[in-house]
Design brief:
alpha/beta; 5 helices; 56% helix
């Protein structure tokens, strides 16, 4: 049975841990709000870009582009978007569980975030490149990732590209999602970019008629790379919002558990202390009775 001194030491240790987790919860809460606003602010632009892409595609006939080339090969590239740090609940483990389902021989990974790269190295899978991104992702960071995978696709090193990330739905709900990136496919049926809980929305026209100068084919050829760049950028925003939300919830749960543990230990300490006092009183009383 532990002594009162051991329990006091444990209570002090748990209190120190609770202070740390509380501080981390407050920091994550502040970052979470900014990340959520950034992710939500990017969605209207994504919708507008999708509408513009549909309008341009409707005015082109027999349009072809190297980024739209369908290939029979099975070589696949997966952009794994994870976090750089842990302490964010099951976010990274859910992602790596999905990543583990890909065939080792035919899949190469491009990782954004250290946790994803560690998973690839630990499981001896093929890692083509590792990128980092800040708490407030920059468009330049997304463009670097997009440019790298586009070059791989255009050189024929891979036949398709997919994005595996955590989609932000709400503060309490974040879901691993797989989103196709390359080849873009038939534009009139291409899937829209990230849009919260629904990533499978076909492009819809605005209903307006536009005249393009230069030709619609030239506009579309210039728009496709930018479309892919912004797709990656929105994914980074969604992943960061998911990370900060998951971390805030995890730290709140840790703080609550620490407080409950302190209550249980305090109760155990008081019981043990009362038992020791009772035992000492009994010893004193017995000694007094023995002395007559």
């Amino acid at each position: 049975m532990p002594s009162t001194r051991d329990i006091r030491r444990r209570i002090k240790s748990v209190k120190n841990t609770a202070q740390i987790t509380k501080a981390m919860q407050m920091v994550a809460s502040s970052k979470m709000r900014k990340a959520q606003l950034a992710a939500l602010a990017g969605r209207p632009y994504a919708k507008l870009m999708n509408t513009m892409l549909a309008d341009v595609a409707a005015d082109t006939k027999d349009f072809s582009h190297p980024l739209m080339e369908n290939r029979a090969g099975k070589k696949r590239c997966v952009i794994l978007v994870s976090s750089d740090k842990g302490l964010c609940g099951a976010l990274n483990s859910n992602l790596t569980r999905e990543a583990a389902r890909y065939d080792k021989d035919n899949t190469v990974f491009v990782c954004a975030g250290k946790k994803g790269a560690q998973f690839v190295a630990r499981n001896k899978r093929k890692l083509a490149a590792e990128f980092t991104y800040k708490d407030a992702p920059l468009f330049a960071e997304a463009r670097a990732i997009s440019k790298f995978v586009q070059e791989m696709f255009l050189k024929g090193e891979v036949d398709s590209v997919e994005i595996l990330y955590t989609n932000f739905i709400s503060t309490l709900i974040q879901k691993p999602e797989v989103q196709p990136m390359l080849p873009i496919g038939e534009l009139r049926g291409v899937q829209a970019g990230v849009d919260g809980g629904d990533t499978g929305v076909d492009l819809q026209r605005s209903g307006l008629e536009f005249q393009f100068e230069p030709a619609a084919e030239s506009v579309l050829g210039s728009l496709l790379p930018h479309y892919l760049n912004f797709q990656i950028y929105q994914v980074l925003l969604e992943a960061k919002a998911s990370e900060q939300s998951s971390r805030m919830v995890a730290m709140k749960n840790a703080t609550d558990n620490a407080k409950q543990l302190i209550k249980d230990l305090t109760l155990e300490y008081n019981k043990l202390r009362q038992a020791n006092i009772t035992k000492e009183l009994l010893e004193i009383t017995t000694a007094q009775m023995a002395l007559g």
